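User: I'm designing a mutation panel for DNA 3'-5' helicase and want to avoid disrupting the core. Could you give me a predicted structure to guide residue selection? Please restate the sequence first so the numbering is unambiguous.

Assistant: Good idea. Sequence first, for numbering, then the predicted C-alpha cells:
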Amino acid sequence: MVAGGSASARAQEARRCERELREQLRAAQREARRWEAASEGERRVAAQLLLFTRRGWRLLVDRRWPGTRSANVDMLLVGPGGVFVIDVKNWQAAPEAADGHLTAGPQRRDGEIGKLLAVTRVAEGAVASLGMSPVAVQPLMVFAGRSVDDRLGRVRLLGEREVAPALMAERTRIPAAGVRAIADHLEAVFPAYEGSSVRPGAGDGPEAAPADPAAPAGDDALFDVGGLGEAAVEAARRGPVEQWMTFLHPDQVALVRRNWSGPARVSGPAGTGKTVVALHRAAHLAQRTTGRILYVTFASNLPRVQNTFLRTMSPAVADRVEFRSLHSWAQRFLDERHIPHHLHGDRAEDAFSRAWVRRGRQSPLSSLDPSPRYWHEEIDCVIKGRGITRFEEYATLRRHRRRTNLRRPHREAVWALYEEYERVRTERGVHDFNDILSLALAEARARPGRNPYAAVIADEVQDLTLVGVRLLHALVGDAPNGLLLVGDGQQAVYPGGFRLSDAGIDVRGDRGQVLRTNYRNAKEILDAALTVVAEDAFDDIDGTRTAGLREVELTYHDGQVTRSVSRTPAEHDAALLAALRARGPRSWPDSAVLCRSKREIGHYRRLFAQAGIPLCSLERYDGHPVEAVKLGSYRRAKGLEFKHVYLPDHTSPPLPPCADQEIAEEREELFRTQLFVAMTRARDTLWLGSVTTPRGTAPARR
Ligand SMILES: Nc1ncnc2c1ncn2[C@@H]1O[C@H](COP(=O)(O)OP(=O)(O)OP(=O)(O)O)[C@@H](O)[C@H]1O
C-alpha cells in the first residue's frame, strides 16, 4: 500500500471509532437519564462511566460498604484498566487540592478523602484473594459540573469531562475475561445498598449493558475465579518479558500488603518473584504514605530497569519511589549534606597497587596467593566492607564465605597492607567506594532526624556490604514497614559476606518470609543451573546454612537447554551465530548473550556487528523493549530475565596460579555462583557453548 493509502485507512478507522464512541455515549446518556433520584450532575457523570459498560467494563452502583451498617460506596468500575473505587461529588463550590488538603470554598474536605481511601482498602482486600495486586485498585473522586484533573496523594480528582478520557488512557492490566470475574467477586463483597437513592431504571441497567463485541465471548460457566491469575500469567508469557504483572499469587499479595512491625526480609531461590513482590510493595507503600520510598540495589543498571517497570505498573506513585544504586545514592546524599568526598576508583586502585608493592608482595600473603587480587578483596569486602577499624576485631573475625583459614601472621600481614593502603589513599586525597558508604553512614547516624524516607527497600541485598546495610537501616531504623531486605544468599556474586545480626537487624518470626515457587525457569533450565551449584552449600544472610540443591516448586512450562561443544573458538562462534539466526530476528529482543569478562563482551560486540545482529548493552538497557539482542556480563544480568539466554564459552576460565588450595576453590565457587545466576536468567531456552581445544593451542581470539 502507498503511504497516502495507509494514512487514509487510518483516518477512516479513526472516524469509525469516533462514530462508535458517539453512539455508545448517546446510549449511556439515555440510560443515565433513567436513574431515579440522581441529580442532573450525577447523571452526567454516570453517563461518562456507563459509556465504559458498552465497552466491556462493569459498573457497580451504590453498593454497601461491608463491615459498616449504613455507609455506601458510590461506584465500583472494573475494566481492563483495573478497579476504580469512585466517589461522585456534586459540590456547590469548586474543589481545590493544595498542600495535601482538599477544600471546597472555605471548608476543608479531607474527611471525604479519608473515607474514599478507607473503602479503597476494603476493595484491595477483596481482590487480593484473587491474587490481584493493590496497585491495580485506584480511588477516584469525580466532580459533577467541574473541570478538574488533579491528585491528592493516591486519590485522583477528575471533573466530569476529564473522567472518561482519563480512564480510556489507562493501560491494560486485566485480561478481558478477568473483568467479569472480578466484578462478580466485588458484587458479592459489596452488596447492593438497600437505601439506594440512585437506582438504574428498569430494563437495561448498567449491569445489563451488552459486552464489547470485540471482547472474547465471556462464558461465566467456563471461567472460574481461581483461573484468573493463570489466564493473566499465560497472557504475559506470550508478551515481551518486559510486560508487567497485575496478578500475583495470593501469598505474594499478602506480603505486598503486610504490616510489619519492624525491618523485614523476603528471601527465596532464583526466579521466585522476590523482585515482583518488592516492586509491588514499593508501589503499595507509596500509595499508603505521603513520604518517599528508596529502592536500592548494588548494580547500577538494575535501578533503571526497575524504575521503568514501576512507572508502567503504577505511574501515579512512580515519582515518589526513588530507584538508585547504593553508591550513587550515597554520593548524592553526601552532596546534599555538604560532606566533602572525592570518589576516585582508579586512583584508589593505584594506591592499593603501591601499598601491595611496599607491604604485600614480600609478605607471607604472597606465599598463599601471589596475585594481589585476593588481598584487595579481603580489604574491600572483609575489612572495609564490614566497617572494621581495629586489628583486634579483625584478628578473630569470622570471614563469611572466605574459605582460607588465615592464621595470625597472615592477618597481621593483611592489616599492615590495609594500613598502608589507607595511608597512601589518604595522602592522595581520594576515597574508594567503601569510604563513600562509611561517610554516609556516619552522617545518617549523626543526624537521623533529617533522613527523608518513609521506607527503604534493598533488592539483591546479598550483594551489599555490611556497612551498606547498616546505612540503609540507619535511614529508617526499626520503624514499622521501614526496611525491607530482599535477596538470596545463593546468588551472592561478590566475595565476602555478612549476617543481618552483625547489622543489628532482627527479622525473626513473621518478618522473615521465604518464597518457594519458581515462576521463571523451565524445569530443564533450572535443573541444569542447580547442577552447577549442587555441591555448594551456602550461608544465607540470616545465618542459615542451606544446601546448594534446593527444593523449589516449579510452574510448568516447556523449555530447552542446548549444549554446543566446539573444537575451536571460531567453530564455537559460528555455532552461536547459527543458533541466534535459527531462532530468528523476532526472538532477538527477548534474547541475551551473557559473558564472563569485559574482554569477551568486546569480542562478541565486534562479532555481532560483523554479522549484522543488532545489540543493546545491558549497561544501557532500561527495561523498555528494544529490537536488539542484549549483551553484558553475568554480573550485569543480575535481577533481569530473558526468554532466551546464550552463554558462550561458559565453562570455568583458567584461574591465576595460586598455592593455596582453599583460595583456588573459593574462586571456583564464586565463578559457579556467577554462572548459576547467568543460567537462571533464562526463561524458555538456554544455550551453553564450550570449546574443547585448550587455550593457546587454538588461533588466538581475544
Ligand atoms: N505469581 C506469579 N505468577 C506468575 N509469574 C510470576 C509470579 N510471580 C513472579 N512471576 C514471574 O516470575 C519471574 C521471576 O520473578 P522475579 O524476577 O521477581 O524473581 P526473583 O525471585 O527476584 O528472581 P532472581 O532472584 O532470580 O532475580 C518474573 O517473570 C515474574 O514476572
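For picking mutation sites, this is relevant: The pocket of adenosine-5'-triphosphate is lined by residues 233, 245, 248-249, 252, 268, 270-276, 488, 491, 519-520, 639, 641, 680 (CB under 6 Å). Residues 195-225, 697-702 have pLDDT under 50 and may be disordered.
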